Amino acid sequence: MSDATAWALIAGCAVVTFAIKAAGPVALGGRELPDWFGRVVALLAPALLSALIVTQAFADGEELAVGADTAGVAAAGAALWRGVPIVAAVLIAAGVTAALRAVA
Fold it and tell me: If we measure between CA atoms, which residue out of 60, 65, 88 comes closest to residue 76?
């Protein structure tokens, strides 16, 4: 891919992103959203984050697999559930993953 093609692709993505982000305010025109819709929108971010975590924890190329990274994410999830600060949970996940990869 040439530099010109790459920059054209980046510019195209920027224009499409701008159009998508502008569509909401333009379509609503300053009107208030219904309460039920606001509650649904509030749940979208946690759902998306959960989906990203699950796909990264179980993805191994083109198929699902359980490995050291899955165990690390599980350990971090358990630590967060018990009230451990997030920085400590990340360190726990890294430590568990590194230890299991060193053993295998």
Answer: 88
